[in-house]
Design a protein that fits this description.
The complex is a heterotrimer. Chain B is mainly alpha-helical. Chain B is built from seven helices and no strands. Chain C has a domain of 52 residues. In chain C, helix 6 packs antiparallel against helix 7 and helix 7 packs parallel to helix 9. Chain C is globular and about 75 Å long. The chains are: A alpha+beta, B mainly alpha, C mainly alpha.
């Protein structure tokens, strides 16, 4: 007894402890509550826009509430106990070693809560894996540091795709359609994630994983690669674009339209030559022909570890480039598109990158020196580990007038 | 029980002369520290080999380049070397028995024979690796090659370490420099040796006998 | 046997109250003179004393804590603004890889080992661990492994594959610098340290308890450490296999993770997480043990439901083996595995909940004394609860596919590791400092330390819940302005708060470091029993003598020390606890019955020599195998010397104790 008093006086006590504690508890509680207060963050997981994401949301919301309540109760009890049983000079308490009945009850209680959570969890796991009602199949392949989409020929919802479509960065799907992504990778592990439409699925080289994508209404839904994939993991992004069936038909038609060569003698025609001489080693533009009429076929396998580079046939029908990191649209036009009403979205999107909306600065910087904008493994003096191949796009040392010509040419790739 | 446990926990280190004939070491578990730690170590080793065996089982069918298991395994040869290793467990038992009878001469003899049998096994493994290599299965040839050599190589290293331990025990026993209970030292090496043998029985069955 | 210097002759009559004779043999063995110093730097370099090793473990871990902390601050500086350029992408990737590696393998684990080394023998009434030289070897391996790992910063860059080091991103094709080689080999070296440490401590606990101490009378810290050692014993070999496969691939051309040869990258993930999940409990359980000592002490009542706490600890250790794939819910395992691992993961929340309930009920009805140690312990309950419930949100597998690899996960495990494990270790510092150094850490600075860390943790990691749920993924060197949302509370705001918070934690840690120096220079000598403590380590002097206990205590009850001090006395108002003896009286009693002829294990050169051989071999693997040959030669020399050296120098000429007081000797060949 007296011993304890002695030590107390040696050390001093903090009378304000209790106040601090209640403040701390309050802060934590408020912090947790604010978690729900998202303001239009495009990747907010609490704003599902498709069937599977909604299923997940329905499942996780109550879990978050239960978790929050349990935490507040525990913290509340701890706080109360700290106030109630603080040392006020009372006797040393009875040396009780516990109360088995109470302990068993308090073991069973969380067990019941968890059992209640586990049943819907297991049901959802199987529901989310459903593939039998697939209406459209798209192959998705990750590589450092961008996504490639390869549309299988055949039906995609109500639209028939006659020839293969290969595109990058932006996944275009018809709305209200059960799209099955078949996901793999050509180099390291990546992970495909469009929070508004579904959870993540890893893209593992040598394995094929599937993920259902379904969007309830037209719009653009952003996402990112979420498995650490090396140097430019932070600059490997993607989006899913949902269109109405007729708009999707229009998009497919545009993807499959004939190659339109630039008018002879124009800046763009010079750009075509620059493209053929430099870019086409890796980047394919469908139906591009050499002067002798033979097709220009890219062979990225010779230069790039993953063996592919984005297909640029319809670059200006996408809204961003280089792993969907840099905008092709000016900020104003991008904001307008991102916030467009579902009814207006399709028409706006299908216009592509018009000259007045074109964010020329970014593309120009990129062509001047790509690794300066996005770190890549392209130092020509340091390629021994890859056998001389690049991971990413090297600096091509283009001259300013070549860049002008290229930009004029690329603006026509819509 | 606890009362005995404390006093005289272990004299293993000072057993020269005066303490020599003390009662068996009294510890809380009744097992000496050394023996208990050897058991624990072997438990840990189980997971090491578990990991290696799992890797091999996953990859044994994957050999795009180079030969596969069915093409190169020489079951009769490996059976003979496996038999030799099994026999070495028998001689190890005899060594432990001799050690318990404080028969240093026979202990040394059996330990030496055990080491020789072990060396014969390792020799067989070296021969096997060499012939596989000439048949086109290198360490880097295929997944099968990498995982096969890693698994059997790890086991071979364990046998080799065992042989070294056996020889060291023989050596220091003859110079009477074992710091502790001789029989227990022999028994500890024996535990390790038997473990390595048992692991081989598993490897032999899974790797060689069960067709992929 | 060449030169033998006999120990000084024992006085014929031993004064009953005098300190017992500590026999420190001084003879040489062959050509090598045994190290004998018990003061000065040599006494630290060659020591096998578990207390000195514990202090060295602590000091080195604290150093690595500061290193890892600086890495964390750099990360938060980079993330304080969108598209920031404090660090390049390459530097950032190295930074977060090494931050995690350092904090897990070079701070939390060895710091827990520091406490385990120092207090486990004291708590069970032993004079040292079972294998003192192996204990020393473990420390030197940890130190050299950690330095080796960090030397990569100066030799072309550190590992950049994340602490989980997923293949194939970790292969030489995708990470050509030597960073990952350093990482792999460094972890192999520290892994050996963990493994032999585990063997040593398990044997110590199972074999060397004081008379009368049953397993269910061991202090909870000892129990939790025991569970952790079993986890280490079985988890380390699995990561060892994985690391071998990876280094064979990187250094010797094996194909284990070469997808073109048909390899399955998920093999690495399974091996890594079979180790990695038990590792989570390896990190957290020692702190659970510490606060299970601190809370009863300052609540003045026994731990509520001791058996439940012990069994739930064991249950966590056991079930912890069956949940590894919850790190892989997005890896494409298939619905059956996902469902099974999801339910198993929820299962493990039950024993964890039991612990929180028991700690809370320990406070209930107590007489609470809010020292810094107590505040840290209560801080653990609060912060770990938050980390625990957010853990349940991602045990729900479908919801985890949204949360995994976002900042929500970063928030979760930092609440668990910083709020749980690190705050628990700090509780241990304040609680045990007077025992280890005989001086109290300053309580005023301690309160600052606690509140800054407590608010700092909430400021840093609280907002990360929000960031993650709003879609900010982990391991991103930059986050773009256009994804931050609108309004005042956008992600920009929360990122800045988190960065500010990290510096608040940093300030708290700085105050702790200042406190250490202040205490070292200025603090008065601490009372013998400053906390009115309960367990066996307080029954001896502070700091304990080299042989720990003058007389090995006989144990009659859980909280033995408390029961020697207090007795229940019937009064008119019913039974009351009355203090019948002071700690000083108890100590005097022990000293007056001191054991005679206590043999302590002798210092040895070989642990440090053996440990030094391994980094040499490892540098050789990376740069030139000839160096490995040299290293192996050193290794063999050390093993040879070790085997021929008795753990206690030869004293066969020394009279065995006859009658009277008992002799307690330290075990072993180790």
């Amino acid at each position: 007894m007296d011993r304890s008093k002695e030590t107390v006086s040696t050390l001093g006590r903090m009378p304000s402890t209790r106040r601090h504690w209640s403040r701390a508890a309050l802060f934590t509680g408020v912090g947790l509550l604010l978690a729900g207060c998202a303001n239009n963050a495009p990747q907010d997981i609490f704003e599902p826009k498709g069937e599977n994401a909604k299923k997940i949301d329905t499942l996780q919301r109550p879990v978050f509430y239960i978790a929050g309540i349990v935490a507040l109760i525990v913290i509340g009890i701890v706080g109360y106990a700290m106030w109630k049983f603080r040392d006020r000079g009372q006797d040393i308490p009875e040396q009780s070693h516990g109360n088995p009945k109470l302990e068993i009850a308090l073991t069973i209680l969380p067990a019941i809560i968890l059992a209640a959570i586990s049943v819907p969890t297991v049901i959802s796991v199987f529901e989310l894996d459903k593939k039998t009602d697939t209406e459209c199949i798209i192959n998705v392949t990750g590589q450092q540091w961008w996504w490639e989409y390869d549309y299988a020929t055949g039906q995609c919802g109500d639209v028939k795709i006659d020839k293969p479509i290969v595109t990058a960065g932006e996944l275009v799907i018809p709305e209200k359609t059960n799209v099955l992504l078949r996901i793999t990778s050509r180099d390291v592990i990546h992970s495909y994630w469009i929070p508004a439409l579904n959870g993540k699925r890893d893209a593992v080289p040598g394995r094929l994983h599937t993920l259902r994508m379904q969007a309830d209404q037209p719009g653009i839904y952003t996402g990112q690669c979420t498995e650490f994939c090396g140097l430019s993991h932070a600059r490997m992004r993607q989006a899913a674009v949902a269109l109405t069936t007729s708009d999707f038909q229009q998009w497919v038609d545009n993807q499959l339209k004939e190659y339109v060569a630039p008018e002879a003698g124009s800046l763009a025609a010079e750009g075509e030559a620059v493209f053929t001489a430099n870019c086409s080693k890796c980047h394919q533009v469908n139906d591009l022909k050499n002067a002798d009429g033979s097709p220009v076929l890219s062979d990225p396998d010779l230069y790039v570890v993953s063996g592919v580079a984005p297909n640029l046939s319809h670059l200006m029908n996408r809204t961003a480039f280089a792993g969907w990191t840099f905008d092709l649209l000016t900020e104003e036009c991008r904001t307008a598109l991102w916030t467009a009403k579902p009814a207006d979205f399709g028409a706006m999107y299908l216009k592509g990158v018009t000259p007045e909306c074109f964010n020329e600065v970014a593309l120009r910087d990129w062509l001047r020196n790509p690794p300066a904008m996005k770190p890549m493994f392209v130092d020509p003096n340091n390629l021994s580990s890859t056998g001389g191949k690049y991971r990413g796009m090297p600096n091509l040392n283009l001259k300013p007038d070549q860049i002008d010509q290229l930009i004029a040419y690329l603006l026509g790739r819509n | 029980m606890a009362d005995i446990a404390v006093h005289d926990v272990d004299h293993a280190h000072t057993d020269h002369g005066a303490y020599e004939d003390h009662a068996p070491h009294a510890t809380s578990t009744g097992l000496s520290n050394n023996k208990l730690s050897m058991w624990l170590f072997l438990g840990s080793e189980c997971l090491l080999f578990g990991g290696l065996i799992s890797t091999y089982m996953l990859y044994r069918g994957r050999h795009e380049a180079g030969p596969g298991p069915d093409q190169i395994f020489d079951i009769p040869l490996t059976s003979v070397s496996s038999f030799i290793l099994l026999m070495s467990s028998l001689t190890m038992v005899l060594a432990v028995n001799s050690a318990k009878r404080k028969d240093d001469r026979n202990t040394s003899l059996w330990l030496t024979i055990t080491a020789l049998l072990g060396a014969l096994f390792v020799g067989g493994q070296v021969y096997e690796f060499t012939s596989f290599y000439h048949e086109g299965l290198g360490f880097t040839t295929s997944l099968f090659g990498s995982s096969f050599y890693t698994l059997t190589g790890f086991h071979g290293v364990h046998v080799t370490l065992g042989i070294i331990m056996l020889m060291v025990v023989v050596f220091i026993m003859q110079r009477d420099r074992i710091t502790g209970d001789k029989a227990e030292v022999v028994e500890l090496v024996g535990l390790y040796w038997h473990f390595v043998d048992v692991v081989w029985v598993i490897i032999f069955t899974l790797v060689y006998l069960i067709p992929s | 046997m060449a030169i033998i210097e006999r120990p000084a002759a024992v006085p014929a009559t031993v004064d009953a109250v005098a300190a017992p004779e500590v026999v420190t043999p001084t003879q040489a063995l062959g050509a090598f003179r045994r190290p004998v110093s018990s003061t000065g730097w040599k006494s630290w370099l060659f020591t096998v004393d578990h207390k000195k090793l514990g202090i060295m473990y602590g000091a080195v871990s604290l150093f690595f804590f500061l290193v890892g902390g600086i890495e964390a601050l750099l990360i938060r500086l980079q993330l304080a603004a969108p598209d920031n350029t404090v660090l390049s992408a390459d530097q950032y990737n190295q930074m977060f890889t090494m931050h995690a590696t350092t904090m897990v393998f070079l701070f939390v684990m060895p710091m827990a080992a520091a406490f385990a080394n120092y207090f486990l023998p004291l708590q069970i009434g032993a004079r040292d661990v079972a294998f003192p030289r192996i204990n020393a070897l473990g420390f030197w391996l940890f130190l050299f492994g950690g330095l080796f790992l960090n030397s990569s910063w100066l030799l072309g860059g550190a590992a950049d594959g994340g602490w989980f080091m997923y293949s194939p991103n970790s292969s030489a094709l995708f990470s050509p610098s030597h960073g990952i080689d350093f990482w792999v080999l460094g972890l192999q070296i520290t892994g050996i340290a963990s493994l032999i440490g585990a063997l040593n401590l398990i044997v110590t606990v199972l074999n060397m308890r004081a008379p009368g101490m049953k397993l269910m009378q061991m202090p909870v810290f000892t129990w939790m450490v025991l569970v952790v050692q079993f986890l280490l014993l079985f988890a380390m070999p699995v990561i060892t296999v994985a690391l071998f496969l990876l280094s064979f691939q990187r250094n010797f051309g094996a194909t284990f993770f070469d997808v073109n040869q048909g390899a399955d990258p998920l093999l690495w993930q399974h091996l890594f997480w079979i180790f990695g999940h038990p590792e989570v409990y390896i990190i957290i359980l020692p702190s659970f043990g510490i606060i299970s000592e601190v809370l009863p002490t300052f609540a003045r009542k026994p731990l509520f439901g001791y058996k439940f706490v012990v069994f739930s600890g064991a249950a966590i250790g056991f079930v912890g083996w069956g949940v590894w794939a919850h790190h892989m819910f997005a890896s494409g395992l298939g619905p059956v595995s996902v469902a099974v691992f999801s339910v198993a993961t929820m299962l493990i929340a039950i024993p964890t909940g039991v612990k929180i309930v028991n700690w809370t009920l320990t406070l209930w009805g107590g007489k609470l004394w809010f020292t810094t140690a107590m505040l840290f312990a209560i801080g653990v309950i609060v912060l770990f609860t938050i980390g625990g419930v957010s853990g349940v949100t991602h045990a729900v597998a479908p919801s985890d596919t949204q949360q995994t690899d976002t900042y929500h996960i970063v928030a979760h495990f930092h609440y668990v590791i910083v709020g749980g494990a690190v705050m628990g270790l700090f509780a241990g510092f304040y609680f045990w400092w007077p025992k280890m150094f005989g001086k109290m850490l300053n309580e005023r600075l301690g309160k600052w330390n606690f509140w800054l860390m407590f608010f700092g943790v909430n400021l840093t990691f609280g907002p990360m819940h929000i960031l993650g749920l709003q879609g900010q993924p982990r391991r991103m060197v930059v986050w773009p302005e256009k994804l931050t949302g609108d309004g005042f509370f956008d992600m920009h705001f929360w990122n800045q708060i988190a960065s500010v918070g990290s510096f608040v934690i940093g300030l708290g840690v700085l105050i702790f470091v200042i406190n250490i120096f202040w205490t070292w220079k200025k603090a008065p000598i601490a009372p013998l029993d400053p906390w009115d403590a309960r367990t066996l380590e307080w029954i001896t002097a502070s700091p304990p003598k080299e042989h720990n206990f003058d007389r090995i205590p006989t144990v009659h009850a859980l909280d033995e020390f408390f029961h020697r001090k207090y007795e229940e006395v019937d009064t008119a108002d019913g039974p009351r606890l009355v203090k019948v003896k002071s700690a000083e009286e108890i100590l005097a009693e022990e000293e007056s019955h001191a054991d005679a002829h206590i043999h302590l294990p002798s210092p040895s050169y070989w642990p440090i020599v053996l440990a030094a051989a391994l980094p040499i071999i490892a540098y050789g693997v990376i740069y030139n195998l000839m160096l490995s040959v040299v290293g192996t030669a050193v290794l063999l020399l050390a093993v040879f010397g070790w085997c021929l050296e008795p753990s206690v120098a030869d004293d066969s000429d020394y009279d065995p104790p006859a009658g009277g007081d008992s002799t307690k000797e330290l075990a072993t060949l180790g």
